[in-house]
Design a protein that fits this description.
CATH topology of the largest domain in chain B: Uridine Diphospho-n-acetylenolpyruvylglucosamine Reductase, domain 3
Number of domains of chain B: 3
Low-confidence stretches of chain B: none
InterPro entries (chain A): FAD-bd_oxidored_4_C, FAD-bd_PCMH, FAD-bd_PCMH-like_sf, FAD-bd_PCMH_sub2, FAD-linked_Oxase-like_C, FAD-linked_OxidoTrans_Type4, Oxid_FAD_bind_N, Vanillyl_alc_oxidase_C-sub2
Low-confidence stretches of chain A: none
Largest interface: A-B, 91 and 87 residues
Strand order of the largest sheet of chain B: 3-4-8-6-7
Structural class of chain B: alpha+beta
Pfam family, one (chain A): FAD-oxidase_C
Number of strands of chain B: 17
Helix content of chain A: 25-40%
Strand content of chain A: 15-25%
Distance between the termini of chain A: 26 Å
CATH architecture of one domain in chain A: 2-Layer Sandwich
Shape of chain B: globular
Keywords (chain A): FAD, Flavoprotein, Oxidoreductase
Strand order of the largest sheet of chain A: 15-12-14-13-17-18-16
Organism (chain A): Arenibacterium halophilum
Number of strands of chain A: 18
CATH class of the largest domain in chain B: Alpha Beta
Radius of gyration of chain B: 21 Å
CATH topology of one domain in chain A: Uridine Diphospho-n-acetylenolpyruvylglucosamine Reductase, domain 3
Mean pLDDT of chain A: 94
CATH architecture of the largest domain in chain B: 2-Layer Sandwich
Oligomer: heterodimer
Number of helices of chain B: 15
Strand content of chain B: 25-35%
Mean pLDDT of chain B: 92
Radius of gyration of chain A: 23 Å
Helix content of chain B: 25-40%
Protein name (chain A): FAD-binding protein
Structural class of chain A: alpha+beta
């Protein structure tokens, strides 16, 4: 994965940049020592790393605006950063950039249960948004696996999802408004506590724009009353195809579970060895979770059980109590950790139409054989969001490249069957060069024109999302080159 | 009138256009504004391209009649979750509402509070921009963050960024049963409090409407619950108990009270002959009663609340310009937006149809329009 060469003219002006940043930020909020900037050299896509020129940690919207005005004036690229949990390299710096981290902006600004929203600073972690309201019976629905660490800023940038978005939607469906600072340092309020846009849906295009249109410092989020209860059921099958058919039947039957998770044999084995959740050894496992009162849960689980039994499951295990429910989820939630313990892995994120599940799983198995790398599958089956984990050894020369090539093949397959490259992780640098598989040059041009409107100088997170070749002319703007 | 038969024809028609184009689906959402330029009808692009009930997705040409979409869904026991509303009674225009028109106006009904707006269910678009170029964004899968979300930007853009030619959207199974709790005699403020309590409960309310003019002048508040029959019974009972401090709620279990309830509303009572003006207002629900006390106190109008108070539908036969100016100013002050849905042409031609935005946002929107439609030929003036 290439990144643009750092602009030596910018690097040579580091002292001036640091001096100007100190004028708008407290001392401790400007990090320029090369030993300390290394803390910001990568995000969760650890295969790529590059310390930034400077990192800043503003605490207010005004400080963010001050930083952006200076960088805009000096033509310095800015890479916004939430908690650095991006699996796509969305926060990967270049050596001539300022990393703008929002991690000091964690306040809850307003909580309104009557109107069902919370307003927070965007450095606040996903889970701590729910933490601030769950005592009163409410929660914030999007629940990415990294929710303990990931920031709302990053959730908005990547339009994050999670296991429960089958029922509750992803970030864009739960975001009511933002306060955002443009690259020029202008503070904009978009949306609010009301629903939907009166004019063009600017909020809709800002969410998921991977930090390329502005830095979101405050967010108004929709909150929901907690359900009376929830319970998962574990269903094992002796083939992926049958499990896929069962998913489709459950959805068609009118049961709308809050989550349907799918794990294949390699994943089950790894999770079991790691977490000892008591999973049966079989080809495919579904975890289906339903919500409601005890009677409602029983009714839905009965329907799901009836459907599952028509597919001859090898295991059908309802959680009798909270303890058992916890164990059912334990294996799934530790899947990535379990994989990390046995191997290096690359986590893909393509989405496919649910009807294509059996075909895609079979093809992934074949590709895995061709490339000689194991692939474990764990994913959100209800909405077709795959998470193939390609296992490799980073210390064996050439394996990372083989792994990336296999990953690219799998993602192309996802697009071929009517799906997309990324369902919830974002493009970042990881899938940047595959964008042409999904979109025509004209389609990409239309998206880049949107960036032209918000950031005409292409200084905000410039080397992400679009293939470098496609964005090159735009990144050579007078301001970006003048520095 | 230009009536292209397919996407290629349509793209050619836009590319060849020498002046403004007035983009139209079924024409059933006409604002009353005098058309500018040549009418470009999308009604010739019809047909359901793909329907996978097991994946809850449908793809259709933008000119496909809504009725055809709903019939196909009905046959599989499914539905458009966001309940697109019809404006026939308001605009007095008969004809076939198109699915493209529904998404181009983000026309979401009562269930918006539970499942999201039309824009939330829209998964992918094909459209022709103002250059006559065919573009694509999104897809037909539930989760997709590949590149910028132009799908949301196109939803509700009323043809001003591009002409929708194909839409892919999520559908849902129809609920097995519907139930209601009806409260009567509440003031607007009490009703909004009752609806907030209902929406804040775990009982998964799928509609919350209050009609101050209700049945025979008796204010009526309706809360809807949907799902499996036993569950609906359970939740309506719990909801009634939860709301007992607002009066003795009546439980109904057939679908009629809901339809009747909706028919009570000012919105549907607007079929009172030509000349009426209708606004849809979106505000924080808690702000709605005070807003309407000021507006209805000074201007003769009918109104009701949907979305637990978050949407107010207002209808006026007289004094329309004064009401309009007051409404726009009040809404700008408290946050939200008021859209002029339909009005006699003298009003619809004289004022922006959408709520004017603060200068920095208006400038951004203007520059976006210029990027998608550099010649400014698509529905000029419709989006502010």
């Amino acid at each position: 994965m290439d990144m643009p060469q750092p602009n030596p003219a910018i690097v040579s002006r580091k002292a001036e940049l640091v001096e100007r940043l100190h004028r708008v930020l407290p001392d401790r909020a400007v990090i320029s020592d090369p030993m300390e900037t290394r803390a910001y050299e990568c995000d969760a896509l650890t295969a790529y790393a590059c310390p930034p020129l400077v990192a800043v940690l503003p605490a207010t919207t005004e400080e963010v605006a001050g930083v952006l005005r200076i960088c805009h004036d000096m033509g310095v690229p800015v890479v916004p950063r939430g908690s650095g949990t991006s699996l796509a390299g969305g926060a990967l710096p270049t050596a001539d950039c300022v990393v703008l981290g929002v991690s000091r902006m964690t306040e809850v600004l307003e909580t309104d249960y009557d109107n069902r929203f919370i307003r927070v600073q965007t450095g606040r972690t996903n889970l701590s948004v729910t933490g601030a309201i769950e005592g009163d019976g409410f929660f914030y629905a999007p629940d990415p696996s990294s929710q303990l660490a990931c920031a709302i800023a990053g959730n908005i940038a990547m339009n994050s999802g999670g296991a429960h978005c089958l029922k509750y939607g992803v970030t864009t469906n739960n975001l009511l408004g933002v306060r955002m600072v443009t690259m020029q340092g202008e503070v904009l309020d978009i949306g609010g506590a009301h629903l939907d846009a009166g004019g063009l849906d600017l909020l809709g295009v800002i969410c998921g724009s991977e930090g390329q249109l502005g830095v979101v410092t405050e967010a108004t989020l929709r909150i929901l009353p907690k359900p009376e209860g929830a319970r998962p059921v574990l269903i094992g099958f002796d083939s992926n195809e049958v499990a896929g058919a069962c998913v489709s039947d459950i959805i068609r039957a009118g049961v709308l579970p809050v989550a349907i998770e799918f794990m294949d044999r390699p994943c089950i084995e790894a999770c079991e060895a790691f977490a000892k959740a008591g999973y049966p050894m079989c080809e495919a496992l579904l975890i289906v979770e339903v919500e409601g009162s005890p009677q409602e849960i029983a009714h839905q689980l009965r329907l799901i059980g009836d459907i599952a039994r028509r597919h001859n499951p090898v295991e059908l295990r309802e959680a009798a109590d909270a303890d058992e429910a916890g164990r059912i989820w334990l294996g799934r939630k530790s899947a990535f950790g379990a994989m990390g313990q046995i191997n290096d892995y690359m986590c893909l994120d393509g989405t496919i139409p649910v009807s294509q599940l059996p075909l895609v799983l079979r093809r992934i198995g074949e590709l895995s054989g061709e490339y000689g790398l194991r692939v474990a599958n764990v994913f959100h089956a209800g909405d077709g969001n795959m998470h193939p984990l390609i296992l490799f050894d980073a210390n064996t020369p050439g394996q990372l490249e083989t792994c990336e090539a296999l990953g690219a093949e799998i993602l192309k397959l996802c697009v071929e069957v009517g799906g997309c490259l990324t369902g919830e992780h974002g493009v970042g640098i990881e899938k940047r060069d595959l964008m042409t598989v999904q979109y025509s040059p004209a389609d990409l041009e239309a998206q880049m024109r949107v960036k032209d409107v918000f950031d005409p100088d292409w200084l905000l997170n410039p080397a992400k999302v679009f293939p470098l070749g496609a964005s090159e002319a735009r990144r050579q703007t007078p301001r970006a080159s003048a520095a | 009138m230009l009536t292209p038969k397919d996407e290629r024809d349509l793209a050619q028609a836009v590319a060849d256009a020498k002046g403004p184009l007035w983009v139209q689906g079924g024409g059933t959402r006409a604002s009353g504004r005098t058309p500018q330029g040549e009418v470009l009808s999308v009604a010739g692009l019809t047909g359901i391209t793909l329907y996978e009930p097991g994946a809850l997705t449908m793809v259709a040409q933008a000119g496909t009649p809504l009725a055809e979409i709903e019939a196909a869904l009905e046959a599989e026991g499914q539905m458009l979750p966001f309940e697109p509303y019809s404006l026939g009674g308001v605009t007095g225009v008969s004809g076939d509402t198109t699915i493209g028109g529904v998404f181009a106006t983000n026309a979401s009904g009562a269930r918006r509070v539970q499942v999201g707006a039309a824009r939330d269910l829209l998964l992918g678009v094909r459209f022709v921009d103002g250059r006559g170029e065919v573009l694509r964004n999104g897809g037909r899968v539930m989760k997709n963050v590949t590149g910028y979300d132009l799908v949301k930007l196109l939803a509700g853009s009323r043809g001003a960024l591009g002409v929708l030619t194909e839409v892919a959207f999520k559908v849902l199974p129809k609920p097995e049963a519907v139930g209601h709790v009806t409260l009567t005699g509440l003031t607007d403020a009490e009703a909004v409090q009752a609806m907030a309590a209902a929406m804040g409960s775990p009982f998964d309310v799928s509609g919350a409407v209050h009609a101050p003019a209700g049945i025979e002048e008796e204010p009526t508040t309706l809360l809807r619950v949907e799902g499996f029959a036993d569950s609906v019974t359970y939740r309506t009972e719990r909801l009634r108990d939860l709301l007992s401090r607002f009066g003795a709620g009546q439980i109904g279990t057939s679908v009629e009270p809901w339809q009747a309830g909706r028919a009570l509303s000012a919105f549907s009572q607007t079929v009172r002959g030509p000349g009426g003006a209708t606004w849809f207002v979106s505000v924080k629900p808690g702000d709605a009663p005070a807003l309407m006390a000021r507006i209805a106190g000074a201007h003769d109008c009918l109104y009701d609340y949907d979305w637990a108070g978050g949407r107010i539908r207002i209808h006026a036969m007289a004094d329309q310009r004064a009401l309009h100016d007051a409404l726009r100013a009040e809404v700008a002050a408290i946050g939200g937006h008021a859209t002029l849905i339909h009005a006699p042409s003298d009003l619809a031609d004289a004022v922006p149809l959408t709520q004017p935005e603060p200068a920095p946002l208006a400038a951004l929107s203007e520059r976006l329009r210029a990027q998608f439609d550099p010649r400014g030929i698509l529905n000029p003036g419709v989006m502010g």
